[in-house]
Amino acid sequence: MRFIFLILLTLSLNASDILTLYRNNGIAEIEKKMDIELTKTKYWENYLKDKDTRFGFMESYLNVLTCNKNNSTLNLYRLNAQNKYKLQKEYGAFTGKLKGDKIKEGDLKTPIGVYHLIKKLEKVDSFYGPMAFVTSYPNTYDKYRGKGGHGIWIHGLPTEQERDEFTKGCIAINNSNIECLAKNIDISKTILIINSKKVKQEISKEKLTTILSHLYIWRYAWKYNDFKSYISFYDTDFIRVDGLNYKKFKNYKKRVFNKTEKRTIIFTNINIIPYPNTDNIYQITFNEHYKSDTFEFNGNKILIIKLTEDNYIKILTEK
Predict the structure, then answer these.
(1) C-alpha closest to that of 159 among 202, 210, 186, 124
(2) Distances (CA, A) of 195 to 61, 102, 247, 272, 292
(3) Which of 21, 95, 235, 303 allows an S-S link to 284, with CB 3.0 to 4.6 Å?
C-alpha cells in the first residue's frame, strides 16, 4: 500500500489507473512511467524549491572550500541545521607565484577548477608545515583539456625554513589554520572550488532544473535502449577520460545497445557545480548503480557537460 501511495504522489494517477497498469503490464510499466516523471522539469523545480543552491546542486558535500586567488583567501562554508551553506572561517592563503590557470608542470600557477580532497598527509617535510591535503588535480576536465602537472596540495607553512609569499601552485595557509581546518572537515564530504576571483554564488535554480531533467532524459534513453537519443547527448568533441574519442565511443556504445538487455540504472548523491572561469560548463558527479544481464558497476561517475544556448546538455568527457 505504501508503494502505491508513493506512485500516486509521483505520477498524479489515481489508484484505478495504477492497478490497471499493474494488472495489464506488470510492475515494469509503472516503473517506466515513474522514470518518465523524473525527466520532467516540474519534478525538479519542486525538489529544488527549498534547496540551498549557493554553489550548485549538492547531495554529497557538507563542506565547501572556496579559494579566491586574487585576494588570497580560502573560505570554509558548512551546511548548517537549516540546510544552508554558511561561512565558518576565512583563512589568508598563499597561492602560485604567477596568475592564471595552471597548464603544465612547473608553471608556478594554482589551478582553477573543482577538486576533491583525496588524502590527508600527517607526515610531511617541515617545509609544508604540520600536514597537507592532497587535491584531485588534474581532474577529469583538466585531462580533457590536456593540462599537466600534479601534487597540488593545501598545506601549512615551514616550521624550520624561510619561505616566499607565494607557492609553486599549491594553496598554503598558516599552521594554526591548517590544524583548525583539519578539525572542521571530513575530506570525503568536502569540495574545493578555486577561481582567480570570487567563486560564483547563488546558482540559477532554473539552469540546475534543466540540467537535472536532461540528466534523467539521458538516463531514460540509456535504460530503455534508445541509442539515437542517448548518443545525441554527446558532443562531437567528446573524449572519454581513457582517450576514447566520439567516433570510437559511439561505435562501442552501439554494439552495447544492440544487445537490448534489461538495465537497472540508479543515480544517487548527485552534485552539479558550475565550473569556475566558464559561462556554461558544469561538473556533474554521482554514484551509479548499473546492472544488465552481462555487466554490473557500482561506483562514482563524473560528467563534464556544457549547457548550450538552447538549453540542452552536451557531454564533453566522462569517467
Answers:
(1) 124
(2) 19, 11, 33, 17, 41
(3) 303
Q: What is the 3-state secondary structure (H, E, C) of 149-178?
A: CCCCEEECCCCCCCCCCCECCCEECCHHHH
pLDDT tens digit string along 102-153?
Answer: 999 999 999 999 999 999 999 999 999 999 999 999 999 999 999 999 999 9
Report pTM.
Answer: 0.92
Per the CB < 8 A criterion, the answer to whether 153 and 131 are in contact is no
Domain assignment of residue 286, yes or no:
yes
Find the length of the chain. 319
**Helix, strand, coil share (%) of the chain residues, nearest 5:** 30, 30, 40
Residues 187 and 218 in one domain: no
Decide if 170 contacts 90 (C-beta within 8 A).
no
Q: Is the preceding omega at residue 274 within 30 degrees of 0, hence cis? A: no
Rounded alpha-carbon distances, angstroms, from residue 301 to 244, 267, 297: 16, 9, 10
CA terminus-to-terminus distance, the chain: 39
Using the structure block, give the residue that is written with the C-alpha cell 557531454.
315
